[in-house]
Amino acid sequence: MGEKAQRMADANTGGGIISSIPQSTVYANSKLLSVNGSSVTTHGSDPAVHSGAKTANGSSTVFAGGLGVNRNTDVDNCTHVRTGGSSNVNIG
Q1: Which fold has domain 1-86?
Q2: How deeply is 65 buried, as exposed, middle or buried, from its count of CB atoms within 10 A (0-12, 13-18, 19+)?
Q3: pTM of the model as a whole
Q4: How far is it, in rounded angstroms, from Cα 72 to Cα 47?
Q5: The pLDDT of residue 50 is above 90
């Protein structure tokens, strides 16, 4: 069944919000679908670690713009986990 799709403005467990996405054509629920390398806002208790964070570890089978689509439970490069996401779009 997969995990909930991550989109523009969805958060990770540290409060980092997806703020920029390197693909511009695929949407879920009228929001750009997040892919590996999407920018995440500064968050967490240590800005040195959580500044400039990017999404990572997306799907190895579902792509947008040639990049793996991010899902709940994927871990960003700052080690926070993606949470929230689409209520009705799941990614394998």
Answers
A1: Tumour Suppressor Smad4 (2.60.200)
A2: middle
A3: 0.93
A4: 23
A5: no
Give the DSSP H or E segment for 39. strand 39-40
* pLDDT, tens only, 1-27: 799 999 999 999 999 999 999 999 999
> In 3D, which of 24, 46, 45, 43 has the Cα closest to residue 35?
24
Q: Residue 47 phi/psi, 5° resolution?
A: -55, -25
Token digits of residue 52: 């400039």
> Tell me, what's the pLDDT at 21?
98
> Where exactly are the structural domains of the chain?
1-86
Q: What is the mean pLDDT of the chain?
A: 95
β-pairing, 67-68 with 31-32?
unpaired
Q: List, in order, residues 6 or more apart from 71 with CB less than 8 Å away.
A: 2, 3, 4, 5, 6, 58, 59, 82, 85, 90, 91
The tokens describing 22, both together, are 């390197």
